[in-house]
Amino acid sequence: MRIKKLIAFFFVLFAISTTNAQTKKFTIHTVAFYNFENLFDTINGTNNDEEWLPDGTQNWTSNKYKQKLHNLARVLSEIGSTDNPNNSPTLIGGCEIENRGVLEDLVKEPALINKEYGIVHFDSPDKRGIDVALLYQKKHFKPTSYKNIPLLVYRNQINQAAKDKNEADDASDDKSEIDKNLDRVYTRDVLLVTGFLDGEEVNVMVNHWPSRSGGEKKSSPFREAAGRLNRQIMDSIFKINPNAKIITMGDLNDGSYNKSVKEGIGAKRKKEEVKQFGIYNPFEEMFYKGNASLFYRDAGDIFDQIMVSEALIKNDYSTYKYWKAGIYNKPYMITTIGQYKGYPLRHSMTEIGFSDHFPVYIYLIKEVK
Known about the structure:
This protein is α+β, with helices and mostly antiparallel strands and 369 residues long.
């Protein structure tokens, strides 16, 4: 038992050997994002949740809801455990969340309760009532400000893009999200949380960009607008602090190679391409190496991404810096039989799975002198 405790200690202050044979010790934090896929309670709310009620088409009972919470908590407690085995993620961005109540139930699960997660959540204008949120370990992260920033997109953005491409057809396929009277597409807000991670200021953005309903090309202007909004938020932070540490994460419904990410945010594939005020996206390289966080139309892709500002990729580890990234896809989270073999194991009428996405994560490390 004493040997196990000693091993555990040295994983918290883990060691990296350098080229000159010296060994340095680092503290480590995991930052994660997970699409919880339809985390609904069984109570009839004001949103369009009829499908996820006991008498709805999903036959969503209390037992199923409890199993869903248990499954999600298991995954969240393990993300990043390869290199950070003694702690679950310090920061967890999430989406497809019905309300604050389901998050309060989630953080009380046995696998998570001892981590004492705080919650930052706002109700979004999305017609289904699904929101984004940030969970944080109170002992490590202290929020100082948080707000939800609306993504204002309109149906005529699609129509104009269609005309530009000589595709002037009806672009109002996603009727569940469109208010025809105002022409606004009601989608998820961007959540911005600023706080101190072990005393260091960090800005965290959590996203769930508009879906591809109606087709990727038709709906792309909405996600391009989301990318530009992210960039505007970042630039406003940089005006206050040119060396700001910014993390933006989310289910973008686009890949790292799409215009919304490459041009809207201006994210770069390689660290050496990132200049001051720039953004590094480690998941672009992972995509080109064949990794996937989900499968869209039978092709693997990485819609779930975490990007960091230039201040987080400098080589000085006297403060927290980005180390590496990963996709958490353990065998128990994967469908093993049938048409969707190899896909994330999601909820069905006969089985309560996890999500149709795998969670993604990065590590932040700081040298211990």
